């Protein structure tokens, strides 16, 4: 089955309900092993990337990631275009709840036009590689004024087989309260949808905004590869 059909065939009611209630959602395995390997194999093909970041150099953590160059590989393009429309529905719902102006266009190309108009012209999908001792500090991936409120990460290899440790971390900071941490393990080929910046949280007197940061715990052995799909482009 083609990837776009697989995305369309996901149980979006359940995913959207999870986003509503928890702010995040697991995506079942959607990339087969062959596709995971195809993506991991791109890692060594320099011509596919616009930049490589050594995380330790910026004190982002320990590991390396590379941003794909436009035009990004077809499979990634299909993932980015395929996930966008359903997530845009929840994104617009969130805007209403937070009393924010404006809405996200129904399809990705329209949204990317808005990024472009704000000078955000560089592609942001990325592949990350961590070796033993590697980790990713809690952070956000905002690259300008325009941002999409969700992003998706896919695990390209398998925990307990290819690496140990390396759980995905999501920390939610509530106003005037202590932060809550979530630890997520993502199966090979599966994904995880999480908020880029904020989410509406139902309190006693209506909705308020929490702030989210994500990262990765220390890889205790082996090598961990992930694919990050960020919908907004960068300055
Ligand atoms: O490697 C990971 O799981 C974290 C990836 C990440 O930071 C991202 O996709 O933005
Ligand atoms: Fe990130």
TrEMBL record:
Domain of life: Bacteria
UniProt keyword Transit peptide, yes or no: no
Residue stretches making up the Fe2OG dioxygenase domain: 121-234
Any Pfam family matching the protein: Oxygenase-NA
Entry GO MF terms: metal ion binding; oxidoreductase activity
Keywords of this entry: Iron, Metal-binding, Oxidoreductase
Regions that span the bilayer: none
InterPro entries referenced in this protein's UniProt entry, alphabetically: DUF2086, Oxoglu/Fe-dep_dioxygenase_dom
Family: Belongs to the iron/ascorbate-dependent oxidoreductase family.
Name of the protein this chain belongs to: Fe2OG dioxygenase domain-containing protein
Organism name: Neobacillus massiliamazoniensis
